[in-house]
Design brief:
four-stranded antiparallel sheet; alpha+beta; 740 residues
Length: 740
């Protein structure tokens, strides 16, 4: 590599060579900018499921029978003081009937679709459940509906709103999703329905995408603006500022253009890529500029070569180690995290080559020598004198941080990432309060060898135990299962009164077989049983309890099933998107920590090869664990849960923080002084300013993220800034003492 670099930079005095480089740079920039329209933003919950996960494999089989439980929209429509008003109900019923014209709609479920079934001499007869045109009958209808466990699912507890469940296709592209969503909103507007709330996956995903897109553009622009301001303030020169600025922007253009060519969709994690590349590339350029300004050689080419020779190897090492840290994310079986790892790592390598390929083109012969003078000698002497106090303070902070770390727990409230005043968040919370839940919950129930089918009496008795547990202990208020068919048959058989909607005794059960068969033939059981009649499901909605609470409830349910349910008759397994999202959040958070360990291992190998010293290897790694520990401790004391978007902070922080340590140690390695103290002083003089400037830029860039009202972006900015600040202080305070 050194030979190639020497041959390359020997040609820098030739105008033709420099002109060719300028042409390559500008043409390639124009080409990659032209790819930008292909960039898109997407956020799909399912992409965060591990591909080889057993629960996901089971869920996919479950989907083949019942479809995706998340392919729905709930439309809650309010009417004060009660929805049982003839004019209101007529308008809503007409609107529901018109929904069939919307492309992508599969079916609707509402109180209008329900019929009151009674037994007659001619079989089962359906009569309207709601007499929307007759106000006199509507009064008795409302009483029957609100007191019925099944009918009341579609009316709020205070009877001030009703709900229509719209089941849609499983859309394969964001555009078809958006078309369907827009058509639905247009339909609501044309029907003059004003007091409504939309809840469902499409709504949540759109809200997340809007925040990702907004934060991506806003903070990218702000990051560049802050970089310009800080560089101008530090260097007091437009020409010097221009080099790191143009190198970082060029690196980012190359990476985003390449991602656009591959049609990579930006996810909730992709918002991290631009600032990472922006600040890493700026760091590389600053070290190059700093080395050039420190070189007192008068000949331009010799001065340039001397600067490049000084920083090329350390910068290449930092690029390799940072890229390896990100590439370690490839071990996680989740597409968005793998994409973050691949393209962040690739971007770091692109930044290195862009800086050393095109950066020298912008270096001017008349750059004045470095004018900022810092008290390196006094700083080093004071550190040595007070080393015991420094070690005591760090030891105390480590102990306190460990206590904070122990308070960390894995948890996720998906909608709490949205701002407090978010309409989407408020709508979900309204449904949780008024209808008992907004998140789908699923459990598969399968017959075993001793059971004939789902409607075997012994099987249903076991299923009844699960239903009672779900309603009494688990906390599900509204639930559908094969048991509802049995209860409904009992109600029909005994005259249709609400009080007979209950599980029958065995004698009545046998007599009601024909009624159940008629209900099945009418399609009433399609949503709770497959065609083989050996596979059924419990389906309901739960509130936003948080992943930790929900997982605990699921585990207690599984324990109840293991202890109380006869496994020779019934097998039950929790499934569904909510279950997978909560479980994936927990497993991915832990997997990210494994990724961090792998990153450390890979970086350690690279450092061992470079330094050829086990002692230097330990010194290079230890100071970079401390900032992570401090950050984790603060998260624990603040009560910020460990989840996907906060666990990723540690991998990113370690990958970036180790850069300054390597630059410091690389400069230390090249010092000729015999005294360790003078070697440290000269190291500060050689690399200290560049480390300080790059760290200030990184902290200043990430701190901008705290301006976001989107909690994910806010916490990324806050804790990455803290981690980088702790890393800087550790490099300036603890690292020199470890070298001493």
């Amino acid at each position: 590599m050194k030979k190639l670099a020497k041959q390359f930079y020997d040609n820098f005095n030739e105008k033709e060579f420099r002109f060719m480089l300028y042409a390559v740079w500008l043409i390639s920039i124009a080409f990659f900018i032209a790819q930008f329209p292909k960039l898109s933003v997407a956020f799909e919950f399912e992409k965060f499921f591990a591909d080889d996960n057993e629960d996901k494999i089971f869920f996919e089989k479950h989907v083949e029978k019942f479809g995706y439980d998340n392919d729905y929209l709930l439309v809650a429509i309010e009417h004060q003081p009660t929805v049982f008003d003839t004019n209101f109900l007529t308008k809503i019923e007409e609107w529901e009937n018109e929904l069939n014209t919307i492309s992508g709609l599969v079916s609707t479920q509402s109180v209008f679709d329900l019929k009151h079934l009674i037994k007659s001499p001619y079989g089962i007869t359906a009569i309207p459940l709601l007499h929307t045109q007759d106000s006199d009958k509507l009064s008795s209808d409302s009483s029957r509906i609100m007191r019925h466990p099944l009918y009341s699912n579609f009316i709020s507890k205070d009877a001030a709103s009703l709900i229509i469940q719209i089941n849609h296709k499983h859309f394969k592209s964001p555009q078809t999703e958006q078309d369907f969503f827009n058509s639905l909103k247009v339909s609501l507007k044309q029907s003059d329905i004003k007091d409504f709330r939309l809840v469902g996956k499409l709504v949540a995903q759109k809200s997340f995408i809007d925040h990702i897109r907004s934060d991506f553009s806003v903070f990218l622009g702000l990051g560049i603006a802050v970089t310009i301001i800080l560089l101008l303030f530090i260097f007091r020169s437009f020409n010097i500022m221009l080099l790191p600025l143009l190198m970082s922007i060029s690196s980012l253009i190359y990476l985003l253009g390449f991602m656009a060519m591959l049609k990579i969709e930006l996810s909730i994690l992709s918002v991290l890529i631009p600032p990472i590349i922006l600040f890493v590339s700026t760091s590389d350029a600053i070290h190059l500029v700093n080395a050039y300004r420190q070189n007192e050689e008068r000949n331009f080419l010799k001065r340039l070569k001397g600067a490049i020779k000084k920083v090329l190897s350390p910068t290449f090492l930092t690029s390799i180690t940072t890229a390896l840290g990100f590439f370690s994310l490839l071990i996680l079986p989740t597409q968005p995290i793998q994409e973050l790892g691949v393209f962040a790592g690739l971007g770091v390598l692109i930044a290195f080559f862009v800086n050393f390929l095109f950066g020298p083109l912008l270096i001017r012969r008349n750059y004045r020598s470095q004018s900022i003078k810092l008290p390196y000698k006094q700083w080093t002497v004071n550190l040595i004198k007070n080393r015991r106090a420094v070690f005591i303070v760090y030891f105390a902070l480590i102990i306190v941080s460990i206590f904070g770390l122990l308070q960390l727990k894995t948890d996720a409230y998906l909608l709490k990432d949205l701002p407090d005043d978010s309409q989407v968040r408020n709508d979900f919370e309204y449904l949780d309060k008024s209808f008992g839940g907004s998140k789908p919950w699923e459990m598969a129930v399968l017959t075993m060898e001793e059971s004939e089918d789902i409607f075997d009496f012994n099987f249903l008795k076991e299923a009844l135990k699960i239903e009672l547990y779900l309603k009494d202990s688990f906390g599900i208020e509204k639930l559908l299962s094969p048991l509802d068919i049995v209860k409904y048959a009992n109600q029909i058989d005994k005259g249709g009164a609400n009080q007979f909607y209950e599980f029958p005794n065995k004698e009545d059960f046998e007599l009601q077989k024909s009624i159940r068969n008629q209900l099945i033939n009418r399609g009433v059981a399609d949503g709770v049983m497959d065609s083989s009649r050996k596979y059924g499901r419990f389906a309901g909605f739960i509130p936003e309890w948080g992943s930790d609470d929900t997982q605990n409830r699921n585990q207690e349910l599984e324990s109840f099933i293991d202890n109380e349910i006869n496994e020779n008759i019934l097998k039950a397994q929790i499934t569904g998107t909510t279950f997978l999202i909560d479980k994936s959040n927990e497993s991915l958070s832990l997997e990210l920590l494994k990724g961090l360990i792998l990153a450390v291992f890979m970086i350690a190998i690279a450092l061992a090869i470079y330094f050829k010293s086990f002692k230097m290897l330990l010194i290079s790694l230890f100071p970079n664990f401390i900032p992570l520990l401090f950050t984790a401790g603060i998260m624990g004391f603040m009560g910020v849960p460990l989840k996907l978007t906060t666990a990723i902070i540690f991998v990113v922080a370690f990958g970036i923080a180790v850069d300054d340590t390597i630059h410091f140690l690389g400069a230390y390695k090249k010092q000729k002084a015999k005294s360790p103290i003078w070697r440290i002083i000269k190291t500060f003089k050689s690399a200290g300013l560049a480390i300080l400037i790059t760290s200030v830029l990184i902290v200043g860039g990430f701190i901008l993220f705290t301006l976001s009202s989107f909690a994910t972006t806010f916490y990324l900015g806050l804790f990455l800034s803290l981690a980088m600040l702790f890393a800087l202080l550790t490099d300036l305070i603890l690292l020199p003492l470890l070298l001493k």
